[in-house]
Amino acid sequence: MSGRALAIRNTSATPTMEQAVQRLSALLIEENAALEAMDFARAGSLLAPKHAAADALAAAWRAAEPSDVGNDRLRDLGMLAEENRQLLKRAMRVQRRVLDLVAKAARSAPYGARYAAGGKLAAARQGAQSFKTRA
Questions:
Q1: 39-63: b or e for each residue (b if 16 or more CB lie within 10 Å)?
Q2: Residue 105, number of CB atoms within 10 A of its CB
Q3: Under a CB-based contact definition with an 8 Å cutoff, are residues 63 and 14 in contact?
Q4: N or C, fewer C-beta in 10 Å, the chain?
Q5: What number of other Cβ atoms are within 10 A of residue 24's Cβ?
Q6: Where are the domains of the chain?
Q7: What is the rounded distance in angstroms from the CA atom of residue 70 to the CA atom of residue 21?
Q8: For position 38, what pLDDT does the model report?
Q9: What does the alpha-carbon distance between residue 9 and residue 19 come to, in Å, rounded to a whole number?
């Protein structure tokens, strides 16, 4: 393979800094919107693409020349990342509260409360009982 063909092949595998910043920015904007709306399923679905975009940005950074890095775009990306961090912290607090409520409800449920196959509350099982008999 010629040197030119190898160079073309490598550039297609590694995005430019501009492409990498745009991709990660778009994903952060989408995830931030999902987190604002507390749509945790949608936000969670963006985790793998966000990691891939961050890896692509790291690769582009290593391959970039100093003049390839636009300070304004990087500053904007940093602000999006900080907003994302804050929204993720809030989402974790919300999830913790929900889990605490579920745990509290489970602890306060009467012993023996079970659900039957049809989803209805099954009769509570009685523990072992002793009987007195007249002698």
A1: eeeebeebeeebeebbebbeebeeb
A2: 9
A3: yes
A4: C
A5: 23
A6: 3-110
A7: 10
A8: 94
A9: 16
Residue 47: the pLDDT is 95
Flag residues of the chain having pLDDT under 50. Answer: 1-11
pLDDT at 110: 66
**DSSP track, the chain:** --HHHHHHHHHHHS--HHHHHHHHHHHHHHHHHHHHTT-HHHHHHTHHHHHHHHHHHHHHHHH--GGG--HHHHHHHHHHHHHHHHHHHHHHHHHHHHHHHHHHHHHHSPTT-EE-TTSSEEPPPP---------
| Model pLDDT for residues 100-109, shown as the tens digit of each residue | 998 888 888 6
Q: How far apart, in Å, are the Cα atoms of 108 and each of 47, 87, 111, 112, 113?
A: 35, 32, 9, 11, 11
Assessment of whether the complete model's pTM goes beyond 0.70: no
